[in-house]
C-alpha cells in the first residue's frame, strides 16, 4: 500500500500551474487507490490498463 502525504506550503506565493497539476494528480492517485474496481467490467479494466501503459 502506498501512502501519499500532502505537503502544505506556508509563506509561499501563489501556486504555479504545474504545482497545481501535481497536487491534483496526487489527490486523484489517492482516490484511485481507494476506489472499488470490482464495479468495472473486464473490458473497462483492460482499456484503463492499456491507457496507463501508454
TrEMBL record:
Question: What is the name attached to this protein's record?
Answer: Uncharacterized protein
